[in-house]
Amino acid sequence: MAGMQAGGSGARGRPTMKDVAESAGVGLKTVSRVVNGEPGVNPATAEKVQTAISKLGFRRNDSARILRRGNTASIGLVLEDVADPFYSGLTRAVEEVARGHDSLVFAGSSDEDPDRERELTLAFCARRVEGLIVVPAGDDHEYLAPEMAAGVAAVFVDRPAGGIKADAVLADNAGGTREGVEHLLHHGHRRIAFLGDSPQIFTAKERLRGYREAIEAAGLAVDADLVAMFPPRAEAIRQALDRLLGGDRPATALFAGNSRVTVAVLRELVHRRGRPALVGFDDFELADLLSPGVTVVAQDPIGLGRTAAELLFQRLAGDRGPARRIELSTRLIPRGSGEVSP
Amino acid sequence: MAGMQAGGSGARGRPTMKDVAESAGVGLKTVSRVVNGEPGVNPATAEKVQTAISKLGFRRNDSARILRRGNTASIGLVLEDVADPFYSGLTRAVEEVARGHDSLVFAGSSDEDPDRERELTLAFCARRVEGLIVVPAGDDHEYLAPEMAAGVAAVFVDRPAGGIKADAVLADNAGGTREGVEHLLHHGHRRIAFLGDSPQIFTAKERLRGYREAIEAAGLAVDADLVAMFPPRAEAIRQALDRLLGGDRPATALFAGNSRVTVAVLRELVHRRGRPALVGFDDFELADLLSPGVTVVAQDPIGLGRTAAELLFQRLAGDRGPARRIELSTRLIPRGSGEVSP
DNA sequence: CTGAAAGCGCTTACAG
DNA sequence: CTGAAAGCGCTTACAG
Predict the structure, then answer these.
(1) Of A138, A142, A263, A115, nearest to A200 (Cα)?
(2) Which residues of A touch B70 (CB under 8 A)?
(3) I need a surface site. Which of A181, A342, B94, B196 has the fewest CB within 10 A?
(4) How far from A143 is each of A120, A140, A149, CA to CA, in Å?
(5) Cβ A106–B106 below 8 Å, yes or no?
């Protein structure tokens, strides 16, 4: 009878505490005590249990444990693309903090698709993650309201949430851009072009704002012909540069709105004579090894991830204060490309 | 009585199917049917259930579902460091394939620490992931034998498992290096140095083997003075280059064992006069924009991740064949740095 | 078309 | 020091 279903799972399933209990000839609760290192078990009994555990290859099923206890000890991370160095640094920082809180991380890439963001986020919620860190693709997050009302903590990074009140950890996009553009102004440039990303992206809008502010603060007028806002693809960049650097009043300097734009611009400039000054938002590896080195406004992906994760665990620890918005400052790194005169 | 614990969770917990059933005045099973889109529910009844779901903010608890059904629809990914572009590309590819199989991904970085690798892997097993994709940090994976015996599928990537038979998806490390070194030989170099990584890393050993084979195939003797195997840190690289490029018989060409070595070498070469030829294993962003462009032996991180994940899901689908070892070929990309004569 | 009962593998009171 | 009973939130047979 007992023998029929004893032994470490004839068919498929894994041995359970019940199997271990039978094999060791003790009660289920005693096995639980040994597995969880609870005190008050006779050493000889514990020994028998350990033997059974090894023999059967038992490993506690944390899913069952989680269901009973209620805390899943896991968080979800939704970002645009883990393969992007900016986000992979951020991911690593989140992992690091989660580890310090004995929490596991579910991760997924939204590919800048709002539906995919929602799908991933809600899948994580169905798995009952305790918290979420989201780099939003969409601008409407009302779908998260019921989850947050039910106790799921959420921190948005890089871009704020839309339609709900939630914590956000952002870079100082406008301020950083202002500093970068001022740097170009100080070097004598008056025709400075701004090459941004899609105008619906929050960071792109903010950086454009910073550009405008710097130009206007210098007593100049913002020339719409000097502003280009679109996703950085080679062909589009080429045409934009043709326009910006040609004509009778060409731009003498470029501000690139993110590292993808910067790199696309660099690839295109290689084929041209005469280099405009260049400052890019976002640092990137090897920027210092190019000639000239590329001057950038560096943000801090590790800091963004760490700050967001720490804020999340603070919320999970009971912090019920109002939604916070934290802005991390940026840093101008002059390397050569931004220090040339018109 | 019933009212006491009805309503959508007064205290903390989330509403359950039971709550929805009570609120809608139907049976539990009917709620389950509606939630899971099972056919055969009276439209009017389904409507009532939907209303209750929205009102209470119900979302199915997938952890409970998983416990009952037995399939967790999740896999674990353990790698060295998500922040490394090589691994973040691989991660993205795994995510992509997992998504196609409706599976979620737990991810963690081992930091090249065998204990951390084991800890992460077993934590994933305790969460009952169905499969594992592991970039091993250690060389002993017997700890996984009970898990694999219990049905957990495992595929190793970039480096093979140690102590157990398991699927492995690798780059053609030796072959790729051979091709790179032969390229330098064809350009007339006879004193070619090899700068590898720590000799205990599988890929470093394999690439060194390829180097040796190429040198010997050319009828030359491997000069131990031309081989340097250590983690790529600036100071160590500087000293190695002093030694390799100085003296009376300096190396005229360098083969760098991975992209971190390549970049460290480039940073150091900037400060020196006279550039040796250079070929590096691993491609990296902007390699083409440096001057000269850096010739590399490119491996395919996306391909490694995709292949490993596809193999894993093949196993999960029932493939019980013997452990496989798949080698992905590499590709030499000449860009300038490797095409200069002594 | 609908629902009551049993059970997934644990932990939580509770009683010896 | 030890263990039997109940329950976490679902799904799986099974019976109306």
Answers:
(1) A138
(2) 13
(3) A342
(4) 12, 8, 11
(5) yes
CA angle A257, B284, B203 (to 5 degrees): 150
CA angle A300, B119, A34 (to 5 degrees): 135
Residue bearing tokens 């950086």? A207
Nearest CA in chain B to A121: B104
C-alpha distances in angstroms, B141 versus B78, B154, B201, B239, B330? Answer: 13, 11, 15, 36, 27
Please compute the mean of the pLDDT values over residues B190-216 and round it to a whole number.
96
- pLDDT single digits (tens) A263-278: 999 999 988 888 999 9
By the CB < 8 Å criterion, does A115 face chain B? no
Chain D bases near protein CB atoms (7 A cut-off): 1-5, 7-13
For residue B72, the model assigns a pLDDT of: 87
Q: Is A9 helix (H, G, I), strand (E, B) or coil?
A: coil
Quick one: CA torsion of B162, B168, B172, B173, rounded to 10 degrees? Answer: -30
Write down the pTM of the prediction: 0.90
Q: Which long-range contacts (CB under 8 A, 24 or more apart) does B259-262 make?
A: B259/B86, B259/B283, B259/B284, B259/B296, B260/B197, B260/B232, B261/B195, B261/B196, B261/B197, B261/B232, B261/B237, B262/B294, B262/B296
Give the CA distances from residue A151 to residues A131, B23, B90, B128, in Å, rounded to whole numbers and listed in that order. Answer: 9, 21, 34, 25
> What are the backbone angles phi and psi of residue A253, rounded to the nearest 5°?
-145, 150
- The two three-digit tokens of residue B253, written as one number: 């060409």
Q: What is the pLDDT of residue B2?
A: 28
Q: Walk across the sheet containing B227-229 and list its strands.
A: B227-229, B192-196, B253-256, B277-281, B295-298, B331-333
Residue A11 is predicted with a pLDDT of 38
